[in-house]
């Protein structure tokens, strides 16, 4: 794997905020005025900046507890409208290492291009078929808006601030701390020239609870009356995510970010299809789940994305099986988009089944507080019950039997689980295979994750007829084989 960056300043993290001491406390208005005059925040309504550099895919580590998979950014452009509370981000990025998850093509197979927005309390992405609501990204995009240097000043002026002093490397800094209610709290470090050189912040997260972020700003340059940093570095959840060399800055650029009607009215939609007796495929969004009916309860495979999606999945299962509670939730792997609803499931009293590799990780992060915006788990006071699977685990209830197997040798994740129902000849899996559009031909180069899934099916001798993917549509096993250029044996 690629070597990780060493950032001594970032490694000190939030601890420096506690270690620093101040002989006098500066007046908040004085500190904010100094920063405002130095950076020109009061003269700025909108801002666009772009650059290139390196980064990482937050929440998509190959193995729990290691750094996020490294990326290269060919371009990243952020457009900010501080008056409207809006942000647009456009980027092109590719993998810099083989292992790990995310929607980026595999190493050496191209880059991902995407555009995302936030306006007020709504977030969305553009797709070939139009805008699609992306509620799970709201917190992160609001955080990106109000932890820019100018955004921090404006947020502190709007919501109020407290001040202090800190020191690092023999240099003294004034600080101002502020909170965007329900979204983030932050402390900005201001140097003697009035430049914000660092922001330590926390934001709520559906897996990690209140999550620490440290952002470093350096090499400020003037753009008319505005000053902006030409290098931005950021760590999130203890690992680097961003190192951008800014190449273009446009103060008060023309910005037109409008909220699409379908995003304004979007709600979590969960549809269900019974694919076998006692087995329901739950779909209707980017991530699917599967309900398996037991004699007196339900096992749910996958609680994805965030609390809102999992709450909607639970509601649909209760409609289908109103007398049987969901007592167990099986998690396919530790990546945040597939684990974002586990806290909500635990709040309902469900036991969580994950890989043995991920078990200690979830135990640690689920114990973290969620104080900025307490979620259902924080409000419930429950301690999650987490069970680990090593290689294989079997569930038996009368005539019903299904198995949880580890997918071995995957570059996507370690501790990667799939569920097999032998009588029904169904396989439930996430990310190892996402079906292409109907009637698509095989790709020029077989996807390594698809090849790996076939290898695991054959290694275990699974007699699969249909795949229930946790992205996409239910397909016959033949489509998987056709996609890697092989006939089904």
TrEMBL record:
Residues 153-173 are annotated as: Disordered. Keywords: Signal. SMART domains: Lactamase_B (SM00849). SUPFAM superfamilies: Metallo-hydrolase/oxidoreductase (SSF56281). The keyword Transport does not apply. Residues 1-24 form the signal peptide. Residues 160-173 have a biased composition (Polar residues). The keyword Signal applies. It comes from the Bacteria. InterPro entries: Metallo-B-lactamas, NDM-1-like, RibonucZ/Hydroxyglut_hydro. PROSITE patterns: PROKAR_LIPOPROTEIN (PS51257). Residues 286-471 form the Metallo-beta-lactamase domain. This is MBL fold metallo-hydrolase.
């Amino acid at each position: 794997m690629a070597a990780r960056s060493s950032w001594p300043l970032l490694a000190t993290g939030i601890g420096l905020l506690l270690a620093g001491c101040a002989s006098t406390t500066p007046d908040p208005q004085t500190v904010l005025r100094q920063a405002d005059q130095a950076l020109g925040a009061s003269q700025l309504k909108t801002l666009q900046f772009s650059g290139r550099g390196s980064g990482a895919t937050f929440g998509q580590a190959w193995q729990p507890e290691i750094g996020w998979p490294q990326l290269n950014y060919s371009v990243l452009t952020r457009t900010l409208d501080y008056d409207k509370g809006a942000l647009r981000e456009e980027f092109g990025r590719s993998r810099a290492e083989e292992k790990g998850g995310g929607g980026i093509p595999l190493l050496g197979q191209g880059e991902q291009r995407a555009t995302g927005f936030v306006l007020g309390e709504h977030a969305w992405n553009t797709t070939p078929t139009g805008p699609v609501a992306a509620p799970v990204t709201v917190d992160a995009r609001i955080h990106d808006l109000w932890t820019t240097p100018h955004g921090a000043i404006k947020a502190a002026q709007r919501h109020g601030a407290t001040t202090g002093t800190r020191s690092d490397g023999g240099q003294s800094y004034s600080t101002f701390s502020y909170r965007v209610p329900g979204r983030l709290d932050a402390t900005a470090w201001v140097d003697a020239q009035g430049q914000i050189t660092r922001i330590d912040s926390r934001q709520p997260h559906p897996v990690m609870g209140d999550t620490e972020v440290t952002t470093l700003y350096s090499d400020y340059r003037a753009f008319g009356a505005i000053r902006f940093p030409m290098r931005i570095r950021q760590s999130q959840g203890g690992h680097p995510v961003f190192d951008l060399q800014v190449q273009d800055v446009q103060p008060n650029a023309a910005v037109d970010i409008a909220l699409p009607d379908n995003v304004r009215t979007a709600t979590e939609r969960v549809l269900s299809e019974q694919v076998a007796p006692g087995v329901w495929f739950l779909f209707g969004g980017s991530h699917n789940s599967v309900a398996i009916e037991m004699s007196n309860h339900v096992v749910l495979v996958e609680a994805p994305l965030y609390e809102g999606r999992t709450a909607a999945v639970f509601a649909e299962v209760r409609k289908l099986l109103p007398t049987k509670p969901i007592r167990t939730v099986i998690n396919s792997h530790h990546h945040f988009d597939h684990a974002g609803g586990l806290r909500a499931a635990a709040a309902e009293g469900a036991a969580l089944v994950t890989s043995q590799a991920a078990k200690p990780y979830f135990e640690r992060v689920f114990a973290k507080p969620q104080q900025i915006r307490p979620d259902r788990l924080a409000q419930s006071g429950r301690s999650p019950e987490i069970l680990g699977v090593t290689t294989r685990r079997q569930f038996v209830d009368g005539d019903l039997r299904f198995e949880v197997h580890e997918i071995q040798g995957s570059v996507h994740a370690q501790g990667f689980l799939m569920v097999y129902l032998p009588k029904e000849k169904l396989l439930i899996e996430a990310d190892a295979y996402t079906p292409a559009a109907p009637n698509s031909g095989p790709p020029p180069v077989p996807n390594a994750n698809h090849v790996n899934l076939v290898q695991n099916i054959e290694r275990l001798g699974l007699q699969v007829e249909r795949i229930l993917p946790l992205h996409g549509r239910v397909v016959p096993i033949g489509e998987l084989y056709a996609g890697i250029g092989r006939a089904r044996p």
